[in-house]
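Page 37, continued from 36.
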């Protein structure tokens, strides 16, 4: 026995995704064809809610919308090769590692600037000097 279709607010609550994002994901084609009532209201079934949860989890892990679109397609394709999924995840990890390294460089630079700033009533400030290119 399948559950009765629900409106967007209920689908949003059930999936943990805002109604605005549900509409956005639908507009991007991540949900496939969503049924509508004669009055034009969207109706979401259990499979739609499951897909929304999949998308939310992928977003929580930092995947881009393009990556999520590819992952959703692979998820629905029972003939997929797991190597295709792994390739996407590996590329995402490599991107995360690059971004983490860049953030660590930024942190080191700011920590160095903080060490050189007296933080007192004097007007000279190595932080502002660095930001203005005068350092």
């Amino acid at each position: 026995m399948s559950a009765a279709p629900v409106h967007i607010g209920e689908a949003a609550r059930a999936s943990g995704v805002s109604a605005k994002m549900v509409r956005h994901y639908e507009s991007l084609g991540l949900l496939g064809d969503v049924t509508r009532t004669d009055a034009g209201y969207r109706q979401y079934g259990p499979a739609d809610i499951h897909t929304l949860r999949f998308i939310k989890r992928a977003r929580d892990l930092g995947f881009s919308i393009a990556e999520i679109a590819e992952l959703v397609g692979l998820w629905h394709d029972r003939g997929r090769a797991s190597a295709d999924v792994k390739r996407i995840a590996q590329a995402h990890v490599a991107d995360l590692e690059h971004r983490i390294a860049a953030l660590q460089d930024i942190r080191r630079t700011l920590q160095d600037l903080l060490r050189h700033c007296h933080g007192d009533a004097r007007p000279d400030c190595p932080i502002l000097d660095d930001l203005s290119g005068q350092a």
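The two ends are 70 Å apart (CA to CA). Flag for discussion at group meeting. The chain has six helices and two strands.
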